[in-house]
Queue: 2 jobs
Job 1
Amino acid sequence: MPDSNSLKKSPSLDKWISIVSDGRVLIHTGKVDIGQRISTALAMIAAEELDVDISRIDIARTETGVDPDEGITSGSNSMEEAGNAVRAASATARRHLLSLAADALGVDVSTLEISDGLIQSRGTNLSVTYPELAGDQTFGIDVDPEAPVKDPATYGVVGKPVVTRGLTEIVTGQPHFVQDMKMPGMLHARIVRPPHYKARLKSLDDSAAERITDNGCEVVRDGSFLAVASADEFAAVKAAERLFESSDWDLGEGLEPQDIFERLVTNERVSLPVVDGVPQKEVVKPLASPPGDAAATLKARYEKPYLMHGSIGPSAAVALADGDKLTVWSHSQGVYVLRASLSEALGMEIEDLTVIHVPGSGCYGHNGADDAAVDAALIALAIPGKPILLKWTREDEHAWEPYASCMAMDLTASIDGDGKVIAWSQDTYSDTYGMRPRPEPGGAGPARLLAMQYREEAVTPLVPQPNMSRHAGLHRNLDPLYSFENKRLVKNLVRDLPLRTSALRTLGAFANVFAIESFMDELAEEAGIDPVTFRLNHLEDQRAKEVLQAAADKLGWGLRCQKDEDGALHLRNTKTFKPMPRSR
Amino acid sequence: MTKISLKVNGKMHEVECDPATPLIYILRNQLELVGAKLGCGLEQCGACAVMVDGEHVLSCVRAASEFADAEITTVEGLAKDGKPSALQQAFIDEGAAQCGYCTAGLVVAATALLEKNPKPDDAEIREALHEHLCRCGSHLRVLKAIDRVIQGSASHA
């Protein structure tokens, strides 16, 4: 199997698999359910490699200090990382259990067969089960990444339909989400948000705050971080509204209305040339004049606005401070990463902190989950001994979550008389996509957490550094799939933009690809060449060519385009271009 | 604080609350029926849908006291003898959820529709569900699940 970071961090088999006495198998993973149902996929893999019925495989909630640290659940890496790790762990466990069975039964291992955790020796009535072999012992061995795995041709579970994990509970309304948690003595909390990012709390009307506390609600204030908590959820909702009405905020300079796309290209920025998808620490060359043999030179600007994740359930978290310990239940995509940043932000020892994953609403990148966890933690520390269920409101989620950045893409290209691209330039302008609370030197973790900016000892928001990885962040797919001889590609990380930004699906990729493909259409039209042919003329990658050709064939593209007498392209043969059939 | 009586999933409950408390908080917190979800609190997303006297009602704004004497059915009340209803089973069979946060609302809305009109046409289904937002994009599978129930009841007729 490929080199596995997951197994390097957690080599012990016991970190991944526990055989439970009732015959169930508990799989541990650091990858979490965020709507994509990775737990179902992992259960299928474990069932397949362990020869245990999938109904008896459980997937543990990821808990720091207990389950493997697999970083962040993002970037479509979960099957590659957790999937391969669980596969190797299950194969290792199966081999180990077979060897224990051979010893226990006094037979050769080659005579053994497994069916749903029952190991039998062929031609005898000797058998033993997984729990009998495991007893109360742990495995005490490491996962062998080379342990033989099954031939996919023999798969009985993987590739076959199964009911996804949790779906029955969801459809019948059973508790499933962090928002559904209920604990004895639990208080419901809401945040009283500033009117805008830059506003700071000047004063609270004491008599109003007293009325709120007399009413059985707690008020938590730390600088401009303001929250209420109550055993009654609706009382907390009303108290938050009243507290806001009786609070006085310094609005500072406010937020200036400006054309965001103008700011993108005029603000201070870090500009880096991109070569082979990788930003270079070099000076950007200015855009050259069109080559002498240019038959035409086109320019275009493409823009993408800020986008919100807009999860249908606003972010939430439960936190409980008990003595020196703090436990947080969160729908964060990275419980270990969050724990490390919480430790730094709160000045607590890492061993005193536990973060446990509980599903939230669908997550399409870095939404408010981590920020809500910090909010809940701050309230819990102020009201020790009581579990705090903090729910963001719809307004919180829409106004305060980290958005996907707005972007502008400036393209310039020249074609020669044969319709070949002989110069290509793209400048992409964007804010960062990398504001997950990763602990990094200089307090970068806490500086990415929303509440930290509003506490009495406020932390200045992080000024992000450009991501220098290949095809990462805002320059993902900036380097086009097409082969152009004369490319000038520039990543521009723009400073001082007005909104918080972080990861949303594919980061900068789809805006870059939209710009590239839209511009290819412009160029094809200018060249008077069918846009599919124009693309094929600029592709060297065989797989890409075949994909494009297959897509064109499926769409009945073929002879769709013809030139009229003036050389303009027109669609023809449109009968072959059928709309997609309705799915029901 | 006042006492109100609510009939939920066939059982009477006496609860003490601020009479202005929206129904959803009573259902989720006092009665521990967490199937209805708080999505927007503005009657705009549909995640909090319940049935009241067979009608599709959003529970996040209207006060619980408005529903005294009414028959309230939540998504938990649709299962019979611990078994999911035919529609719930169809949602499961079609995998008609991604994250599932909006799903209970959709199940309730579709149940309310089918109780009134067992064979709705496509336009009627879309009309009944159009206020239910799903950010993951489960809509087409939801339509398939409803279709499965309509086809199923047709074959049994």
Job 2
Amino acid sequence: MEIKIRGLKKRYYSEGKVINALDGVDLDIEANKIFTLLGPSGCGKTTLLRCIVGLETPDEGEIQIGDTIVWSKEKGIYVPTEKRQLGMVFQTYAIWPHMNVFNNVAYPLQNMKLPKAEIAARVAKTLKFVQLEGFESRPSTRLSGGQQQRVALARALVAEPKVILFDEPLSNLDAKLREETRKELKTFLGDLGITAVYVTHDRVEALALSDTIGVMNAGHIVELGSPKKIYFDADHQFVADFIGRANLIPATITEQGEAYTFVDTAVGPIRCQKRSFAPDDELVLCLRPEFIEFGKVEGDDVNHLDGTISQMSFVGEMYETEVDVNGIRIMTKLDPMTRYNEGDRVTLNVKAEQCLLVSK
Amino acid sequence: MLKRERNLTYALIVLVSLLTVAPVLMLVMGSFSNSLHSFGNFTLKKYISVYTDPMLFSVLGNTAIFVVGSAAFATILALFLAYLNTRTDIPFKFLFKVLSVMPMMIPHVLFGVSWALLLNPSNGILNMWLMRAFSLSSAPFNIYSLPGMVLVEGLLDMPIAYLIIAPAMGSFDASLEESSRVFKSGPVKTLMRITLPILRPAIMAAFILCIVRALASFGVPSVLGMPGRVYVLSTFIYRVITVSLIADYGKAAAIGMSILVISVGLIYVYRYFTRASDKFVTVSSRGFKPSVVQLRKGKIPLFIILLLISFILIVLPVLVLLYTSLVPYVMVPGKQAFAAMSLQNWRVVIKDPISLRSLKNSLFLCLVGATVGTFLSVLVAYVIVKIKSKASGFLESISFLSFSFPGIVIGIGFMWYFVRTPIYATIWALFFSYVATYLPYGIRPMTSAFVQIHGSLEESSLVCGASFATTMRRIVIPLLVPGIVSSWVLLATMFFRELSLSAVLSRPGTEVLAIQILRFSEDGQWGRLSALGLIMIAISIIMVAGVNILGARFKPGEVREKRVKVESQPLKATS
């Protein structure tokens, strides 16, 4: 089921100040795909999710899930949360501590007043799906973090909703478990093929799980696209910076060539991936450390930057290395077995197609 | 939904105002009236007569010594015990837990009586024994004195101070002390220069709360002060309404006003210190364990002191009462006394119509009062925690109003209030005044219970398709059970031994247990008093234990595993 959001606004009043949590959001979420809302805390992503599920009431706009308008200011429609037939996994999991695993998972079915035998069968099936067979009678207080997460997922799935919502479901797990659970979740969601809306502030989660990412900032959706589009081809400095490590250097266009756009920067003239902008846009050159190579490589499509290694930090899988180019410190990576040392004069290569111009 | 919440808030504001604001207003107006029957004719006569009473000067002096002395004693003792428990390797640490819940079991008036039985100048058991052993011509101790009252009240208020100081001391960030040790301060210097100054807000809060409690205290001043004609403000009020031929409630209200003002002022200071202590004490969530001081040589003597305090607070009162209930008149324990032992006092008490009536009344007030009080507390706590508005903030302040009211003073307010209603001199007068005065004690556990129910537990129920009513029934109420149990137990034990409100409002026919104990004490009926007192303690203990066992069965965990057996059956049938 697709979700259509039009002109959604939500304001909060805090200490006499107005906060625009949602500042006119328009969004189409494709059916049967995984859609991620990514952004820093306070950007409005959780508010948007809570508006979809009905736990918050927007001030203006319209939300449509499938063919049903669940909220509309103009038409005066409000479908309460319990009638929207959605599944949701909460950040805190919200597993009820006074119920066992069976009752937690059976709860949505019990509210649908299904026969007991059918409830039992569907709970068993769902628990099997999340690999918690035989956990029915386990008190929910005696579950590990990962198991709680899976109970929450089972509860969200058991009624077979057309849409499932995730509110930062992995943020309460420790780093290692988070990685494992993320992979599991990808498998589960892949197998299900239902519409999923996933809220996170973790870029790796967003990149790994999503079909489409919507990057949010200050109550707006700044950019929308596939993980690769967001990573390689961001249009805005905010998105480029948020989705990965980036050297951001102010730039001005000197020439629009046939294959490249030529810019002038503090590290010298650079040829970039071709892009056009409005004349008064302020531009920033985005160089990702992972695309910067050491040593001189000749070629038309390669930019060369000469500098000195100013700092090397050994962090295990690499050296985080900073190279001073014309007084600008460029973040790069070096192989952990490298022979370079601090103070070495080096030449950096960046391919033009990996020099991304973004607007400020 | 919103409208329903607003209606609930306003309904509760009206109800709670009738319970807590009304008696205060009546007290104020009563203090400017001539008598109960000429209410509303403004006069300053009562104030003039009270504040020019020559006796008042000595009463104020006694009160100051009693209140400050007992609070200081309680705080220092609590500090000592808290330090032993949280910072040293003293054995048998469970004793501290027992010591901190002790006052819930033994009513203050009985604790006071047991000391009177031991150390009163005419036939105190310990005094008689000492006189005989050392051939003294007069009793060496007189508990019917200010020092005696300070000692006993201090022991009784110690747990309050302990419950404030111990958590602050236990959650103390040890690195603050360790850094002092690194800079070459010894353990004693570190305690004096670092630990105690950082804990000062908590210590001050404990001290002030003890002052408020001692100011409101009526049990100890009545059984230990009045026989020796040592009056403090609370017993002075009691004297004004009982001893003279015509009870003067206007005069009582006029004295009460000054206690009320002092008490409310002190609670403000207390709030200031508890706020400051939240800021001050560096509670760390990262699992810092305060460094434990090895007691070494001091371990055994300190442990003996701890045992002695536990004995004095828990075992001694019960032993003294038990012994006294079995002997025909007060005598030194020995062959003669054991030969004279019988159940005569017990037989008399269980046939005494007034004692039985007071037992019946107290049980009714305790069971029904605590149930109604808990129900009201649930609603008020719900509004305070879950509905955040100006009106709910107002409800919070009027609900906690009675926290700072001494029972005997607010009792005078209720007297002015109820005398104008048909419930005057009925059991309902006691009922409503109990619920109103002890409401904060019911609300406290409920607000923390509500705070613990994270909003997402209710929200996820809605997402799962449950209606508001289902969410309440299946999610919210079951999670509240532990809070409901502690509210109920707290209210029930307080109602069961209530003394100071009842001293004003109880009438023939509406006697309660504590009042009957006070009567026995005034008449010197020590044997009957002890028998009735022991019955009272036994019922308290059974009640607390019973409700806790019942509550534990409904606690998350146990119930689940019981339910599982029933509900996993259809599962097996289908799979």
